[in-house]
Each structure stands twice: as C-alpha cells, then as structure tokens.
Amino acid sequence: MFYGSRTNKRILIMNCMKFFFPLFLFVSSIYPQEFIRGVDISTLPQIEANGGKYKLSGQVKDPVDIFKSNGVNYVRLRLWHSPSNGYCGLEQTLLIAKRIKAKGLKFLLNFHYSDTWADPGHQAKPAAWTGFTFDQLKDSVYEYTKRVINLLAAQNAVPDMVQIGNEISGGMLWPDGKLYDVPDFEGQKIKFTSLLKEGIRAVKEFSPQQIKTMIHIPILNGNVNNVTYFYDIIRSNNVEYDIIGLSYYPWWHGNLTQLRSTLNTVTNRYGKEIIIVETAYPWTTGYQNDNTNNIVGPGTTLIPDYPATPKGQKDFLLKLSEIIKGTNNNKGAGFFYWEPALISLPGKRGSDWENVATFGFSNSSGEAEALESLSAFGDLSNLIPENEDYYSLPDQFLLHQNYPNPFNPETIISYQIPQSSNVSLKVYNLLGQEIATLVEEFQIAGKYSVKFNFNEVMRYNQITSGTYFYRLTAGNYTSTKKLTLIK
Q1: Catalytic residue among 198, 273, 278, 322
Q2: What class does CATH assign to 35-382?
Q3: What are the domain boundaries of the chain?
C-alpha cells in the first residue's frame, strides 16, 4: 500500500500512465476485433413458449448455450414498437437481451421503427405515431430510441451495436421518410436522413464509444450500384454512422462472385466496416414438416457447388466467411445468420423457414436436433486457402487465419500479395513485444505459406500457453490476427 501524500499519489499515477498508455495503444493496435459469428434469434421466445426444444447430441439444452458452444459470439434481436402479440416488443426484448448478456454474448439491437416487419417494401410507422407532424416524428424516434437503451442499461444489457432501421433501401417511417414514388425526391432525402440522425443521436448521447451504429439495406438484385446509390445519399447528407450492414440471401441477392465484388467496392468507397447482417442457406428444399409452405422450396436457385444438405449449408457458411474476411483493407467484420432456430411445431406453430434453420425438423414432442452445419460457427477461425485456386495470381492483399488454431507446437500462416512488395511477418505477445520475425524481405506478387514452430522460438524466449498475435505488413497493407498456443 502507498502511504505518501495525495500529491505524491497523483504523481505516481501520472508516471504509470505515461509508461503504460503508449503500450496500451500498441497492444490495442495489434489486437484484432473478433470476427462476428452471429445469429438472429428474435423468434426464439415465441417458439419456446409454444413448447419448442433444442437438442445437441441427443440432449435437450438451452439453445443459447448450443449456439455459444458451437462458436456463436453475437446475437441480433429485432424490436417492434407495439406488436399485436407482444413478441419482439419491448418487454420480450428486455427479457431475452438480459438472458443473452448473462451468457456472455454480445448483442445487436435492430430497431424496425414499426409495429411489424420493416423491409424494402414495407416501412409502416408505429400506429402510436400516426398523425404526427414531421417534427413530432423526429422527436419520437429520438425519445423512443433513448428510452429503450436506458431500459436495457438498467438491467445490465446495453447493446454492443444498434441498427437504425431494417432494410431501409426505400426509406423508413413511410410516407414521411419514403425514398421512391415521391413527388419531391430531394426533400424526401433530407427528411429520411433527418430521421436516421435522430436515432443515431440517441445512441451516441448514451455512449459515443460503447455502442456502434449500423445502417442496413439488402444487396438488391446482387447489383453493387444499388448499394452505392443508397450509401451515397447517406454520405451526401452527412449521416455519421459506424457500420454498413447488408442482407445477402443467394437466391435473391446474387452469386458469391458478385458478393465479393460488392464488399470490396463498398469498403473502398466508404472506408467503413461491413457486416453481412442477414444471411442463410437451406439444408433441404424437397420436404416440409408442417402445412406451411417454405420460402426456400423446390426450384429455388441455389449456388451450384453448395447443395441443399446439412453439409452444403455448412460449406456455404465457411465460404461466406472466407469472402467476408478477404474484404479489402480488412473491413469485413462478420455475419449474422437469420433465424437459425426458427423450427416448426406441428399442430401448434408452422414455420416457412424450418428448412433454412440450423436444426432438423422437430419431432412430435417439439424437439429439434442441431445439424452438423452449426459447427461451422466454430470452424470459421480455421479457414485456409482453397487448393483449386491457390496458385492463381491474387487480386487483393489478404492475411489468413493460421491453421491449425489452437495449435501445439506448429502452425501454418498463409497470406497473399497482389503486387511485389516489401513484406514483414512478425509475432507478438500480449504486451506487444516481438517474439519472432518470420518474414522480412521483398517478395513478388503471389500466395505464401510460412511454417511457425513455437519450439524454435522457445530457445530464445520464455513462451507460455495463451494468446499471441501475428502481423503482416506489405506495402501500405497491414493486418493482424491472433493465434492460440496450447501446451
């Protein structure tokens, strides 16, 4: 214990800060944000209330635990203002948000600003806001957003990210914020973005740093021009937000090549992180377990290399993750799988999404078993380059996750450079201290793999089990990822 004067204590604290703050900044700069492996389970409370149960390896378990144990680290919840049955309303959202946070998962709150579904073709304002003047509508967006976040904070369930509107490519809170089939388009752009700013203001006033804000639209027809057209409107009207959120369902939004091109174009244009905030893939299309026709049914156009099987579903997720991670400037932040727990309950509640969930068809007791595809959420950290195109000339800089990870004592680190560059690949500990230089030379464009053996490093350093970091610098490109040693 320090027994000096209060002034001496201040001096000691300031000296410590001078020493540790630069170290903190360095460690923060090499510590990569964890890749988001999220799920939207907004309908889960309703399914559980109707008797739905979820099994892993034959045992009934809390579905949130099932997701977490398979690698899920984020949950998305939609919020409706005053839904007719109460589900997805504020009371239910508060309950499941508290449950999610108690499990140690992060939480994305999706404001629909509607009493029901909001999407490109439906953006009805809450009935409680009908007849409001535009100024009253702006005030309502601000006050409602602020109130919800404060209520969540009161139960220790502050969202880590907030989505201002859902699939708002056509605007929000119609007709006031509508963006098409309107007589005064320039005026509507100003009104629409003014509504966005009020929602964002409420979030940032609560915590400028703690909560990130997202603006979300679908990739309409797989056409990147539809995406840039919208976000150009946002930028030209000075809307300040953190993350671009995109919906990508292959049967509606184009193939994987188009997706890759869209992600790179968008991040180059706006310089923001991108999340595929809605995606999914079917594990069957030929059958249904209830009297509700499935949205993704027979005849749906899927990606040829990914059949509608549990393995095809898993492989799609792995490929999608690879594409997101390969986004230019390391801006691909992750994805959310939409409603993987939306099973049917024959005789009680149908589901038109049952064959796109990550659980099989439920039995007569309402129990559904987890499919092998669910393990993809845990496998995403171990992606390696695909063999079939490994020797083709790359079109972008990319640092891959080491494989295997965790490992002992040896792992492979792969990367690619599209142009000849001075390349540096180094390994650091948690304090930011360099423990190994793997590459320090000029390299021609191509794809490379480096073997890293910790036993060799241990000759010169005291190495223990735990987390380390490796950083690739090539030209103006820098990327850092973490690796885990288990001894």
Answers
A1: 278
A2: alpha beta
A3: 35-382, 386-485
